[in-house]
């Protein structure tokens, strides 16, 4: 089996992306998990470079691996989440089934979303980069160097997936705020609770 340089780089960056995502899930230290997530995002950006989607690669590094991950690290440091925070969590059969059901629902929803948006690729040739002067109103799936054509496709043909992704990010942010507030309230109650030690008897 003869692999070209492009094929080798594709498998290398794919392994980095998937391996970084697995390490994010398995890492108990939140800071290490954030670092592995940055590694996974850099791998995805490298795949964009192979597709000659340089604008997407730059956005991936600057926005996700840069600003958003720095924000995550700031929140982790602010909440003072230690490496022993997840020791009490245990894998169970019920939790595995729930996770599998969640992934199945996400996959089904993604398929339905793509079907609704009429994003169907008949052959791999449609994913090849096109010339920059191609029409932005065509039916081809375009990985163009033009920011105009990328923005036009993002806010017209792919509007529904964009809104769904934004809603999921908003729900995740609200969930983090609620969980952090609940944890802070519990710690405040523990500190303000009176001591249960018996008072010494007077002689």
Automatic annotation (TrEMBL):
It holds the Pfam family Oxidored_q3. The keyword Transmembrane helix applies. Gene3D superfamilies: NADH-ubiquinone/plastoquinone oxidoreductase chain 6, subunit NuoJ. The chain crosses the membrane at residues 6-26, 33-55, 61-83, 95-117, 158-179. Residues 183-203 are annotated as: Disordered. InterPro entries: NADH_UbQ/plastoQ_OxRdtase_su6, Nuo/plastoQ_OxRdtase_6_NuoJ. Keywords: Membrane, Transmembrane, Transmembrane helix. GO terms for molecular function: NADH dehydrogenase (ubiquinone) activity. This is NADH-quinone oxidoreductase subunit J. It comes from marine metagenome.
């Amino acid at each position: 089996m003869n692999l070209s340089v492009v094929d080798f780089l594709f498998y290398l960056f794919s392994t980095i992306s998937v391996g970084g995502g697995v390490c994010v899930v398995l890492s108990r230290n939140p800071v290490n998990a954030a670092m592995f997530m940055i590694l996974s995002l850099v791998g995805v950006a490298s795949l964009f470079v192979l597709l000659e989607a340089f604008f997407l690669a730059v956005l991936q590094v600057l926005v996700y691996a840069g600003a958003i991950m720095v924000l995550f690290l700031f929140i982790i440091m602010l909440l003072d989440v230690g490496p022993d925070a997840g020791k009490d969590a245990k894998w169970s059969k019920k939790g595995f089934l729930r996770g599998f059901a969640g992934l199945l629902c996400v996959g089904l929803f993604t398929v339905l979303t793509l079907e609704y948006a009429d994003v169907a690729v008949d052959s791999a040739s449609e994913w090849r980069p096109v010339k920059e002067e191609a029409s932005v109103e065509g039916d081809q799936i375009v990985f163009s160097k033009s920011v105009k054509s990328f923005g036009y496709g993002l806010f017209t043909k792919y509007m529904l997936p964009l809104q769904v992704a934004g809603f999921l990010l908003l729900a995740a942010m609200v969930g983090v705020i609620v969980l952090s507030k609940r944890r802070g309230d519990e710690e405040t109650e523990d500190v303000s609770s009176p001591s249960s030690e018996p008072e010494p008897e007077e002689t």
